[in-house]
Amino acid sequence: MSRITREELEAARDRTVPDVIASGLSVLFCGINPGLLSAVKGEHFARPGNRFWPVLHLSGFTPHRLKPSEQGELLSYGLGVTNVAARATARADELSEEELREGGRLLAAKVETLRPRWLAVAGVTAYRTAFGDRAARIGPQERTIGDTRIWALPNPSGLNAHWSLTTMAEEFGRLRAAAGEPPRS
Fold first, then answer.
1. Mapping DSSP to helix (H, G, I), strand (E, B) and coil, where does residue 63 land?
2. Contact 151, 178 (CB under 8 A)
3. The one catalytic residue among 44, 50, 57, 83
4. What's residue 67's pLDDT?
5. Could you give the CA distance from residue 53 to residue 62 in angstroms, rounded to a whole number?
6. Residue range(s) defining the domain that contains residue 47
7. Average pLDDT across the chain, whole number
8. In terms of pTM, does the model score above 0.70?
9. Helices (runs of H) and strands (runs of E) counted in the chain
10. Active-site residue, from 33, 50, 83, 155
């Protein structure tokens, strides 16, 4: 793909990125919402500085580092990806609390239908707002959606300097082990 222009990015505002989902997944990963580059490309976590794809591999969920364009391969590992809020923005803080709460309601309905073993929300602050759980911390949550357990993960955005690639991979690895998934790396 040729270099993406500022105009193309702005035109992607409010677009959506299709979910990569199926029934009965081991883990359904959930971002906050698509960025503008993700909306242009139609690929989750497409920004080069985003650490989702490297961390997914380093934690053992995938045998090699997938590119955003290879997101469909997630299904072969029993994994999927969706978002709390569907509309693309330049920054997650452009979303209102009501959008996140509504996204949480829609996400819960999606999870009730698809019944993954784990829902992994990448962004504890968004999780707190979407599910009304102000005390939530990184890690497994007490709340469930039906039989689906929930794990709050650190946000893989390159802007999240509190978590290094290594510490983020360790947390994702804890989820992988809890989900009973063998290391694939």
1. coil
2. yes
3. 44
4. 97
5. 9
6. 6-178
7. 95
8. yes
9. 6, 5
10. 33
- Known active-site residue 162: no
Structure token pair of residue 79: 């994994």
Domain count, the chain: 1
Residue 44 catalytic?
Answer: yes
For residue 35, what is the enclosing H or E element?
none
Question: CA–CA separation, 67 vs 18, rounded Å?
Answer: 16
Beta strands in the chain (DSSP E): 27-31, 79-83, 118-122, 139-145, 148-153
Beta partners for residue 28, in sequence order: 80, 119
In a domain, 185, yes or no: no
Residue 137 lies in a domain: yes
Spatial contact of 88 and 31, defined as CB atoms under 8 Å apart: no
How far apart, in whole angstroms, are the C-alpha atoms of residue 65 and residue 54?
A: 6
Record the tokens describing residue 138, joined without a space. Answer: 């990184």
The confidence score (pLDDT) of residue 90 equals: 93
| Residue in the block written with tokens 């996140």 | 100
- Does 1 reside within a domain? no
CA angle 122, 125, 128 (to 5 degrees): 100
What is the rounded CA–CA span in Å between residue 159 and residue 51?
10
pLDDT interval class at 176 (50, 70, 90): very high
CATH of the domain at 117: 3.40.470.10
